[in-house]
Design goal:
alpha/beta; Rossmann fold; 9 helices
């Protein structure tokens, strides 16, 4: 049965929105929310055991500037919880959609009540180059610039998502965010844009999951609602998944000259005043080796490690437990 992935993207179109090849690596203008494409993709089944994602079989219900009616109906009354996914760097347009489908598929197969989700993805214009060692610095920096420039578009996406999340919550459903890798760089830009444009606190997410975050380690405590410091104003709970075994973030630290949030967690992460345990949860995944560990996979533990996947499924469902 095909997996449904609703999405919004600030990739510029070079042709019809229902054609996969039309989604370029260029970015739409930052001041034109109507340039953002919203649509629904269908993906065939992934091979979870083989850790192989599926393929996009169709794109339908294309609209500009807001969710199409079909997506509004599905996301506001999904009959299950909602998953919002922001992908990392080195993801093509198709990669981002199939990864979103893969994530919701393993969540639904986790046997954790409440982890079955409808999924909506925000897809920013990564070059989609293959991740390898050594990481091509120019490609990495191009992706980082694009993620940062996606802030106004992500703000617009959040504004369109908010009433749908509220409608779903009124029916007893939860909304969880999973931002992976450089998706956290896009997220901080979106949050800064959200507050800079006068938007106040809002319960966009019941749980915000920051997985292997390729973002500054001081981001969650940045002054004046900068970077990710305003996240707790739009998310009831925040879970930070990090690993000192993440070889990709070792390279990112060298390129950026600063430790990454996904390496040791946030600066002063054990300070309960800065990070109240009632809101923040720090999940150290350094010791997990229950998957094929190599350079690229060390950065993908959030979806490759069965132990971490089970823990994330519990967080999506609202079960906050120690990582083991």
């Amino acid at each position: 049965m095909p997996i449904t992935v609703h999405f919004a993207t600030n990739r510029a179109l070079t042709g019809p929105g229902d054609v996969l090849a039309s989604y370029s690596a260029d970015i739409v203008p930052p001041t034109d929310p109507a340039a953002i494409t919203y649509a629904t993709a269908f993906v065939n089944d992934a091979d979870l055991t083989g850790d192989t994602v599926g393929a996009v079989t169709a794109i339908q219900n294309v609209s500009r500037g807001g969710f199409p009616p079909e997506a509004i109906g599905d996301l506001s009354d999904p009959g299950r919880n909602l998953l919002v996914f922001i992908h990392g760097f080195a993801n093509s347009f198709e990669d981002a959609i199939t990864r979103a489908a893969f994530n919701t598929q393993w969540l639904s197969g986790s046997n954790v009540p409440g982890a079955d989700t409808a999924v909506v993805a925000f897809i920013w214009p990564s070059l989609g180059r293959v991740l390898s060692f050594p990481i091509p610095t120019a490609d990495y920096q191009t992706d980082q610039v694009m993620a940062g420039q996606s802030g106004p578009h992500l703000m617009s996406f959040f504004a369109n998502l908010l009433p749908l999340a509220q409608a779903a919550r009124a029916k007893g459903r939860r909304t969880a965010l999973v931002a992976h890798s450089m998706g956290n760089w896009a997220l901080q830009a979106g949050l800064e844009s959200w507050f800079a444009h006068g938007n106040g606190p809002a319960t966009l997410f019941d749980e915000a999951i920051l997985a292997a975050a390729d973002e500054r380690s001081d981001s969650l405590s940045f002054p004046r609602l900068g970077r990710l410091s305003g996240l707790s104003r739009v998310a009831s709970h925040v879970s930070v998944y990090f690993s000192l075994s993440d070889r990709v973030l070792d390279v990112s630290r060298i390129i950026n000259g600063t430790e990454r949030l996904g390496q040791r967690g946030p600066d002063k992460g054990s300070d309960p005043t800065l990070f109240p345990p009632s809101i923040y949860r720090m999940a150290d995944c350094t010791a997990f080796r229950d998957f094929d560990f190599n350079f690229a996979n060390s950065h993908q533990y959030y979806r490759r490690s069965p132990g971490v996947r089970d823990d994330i499924a519990a967080a999506v469902a609202g079960i906050r437990r120690p990582v083991a």
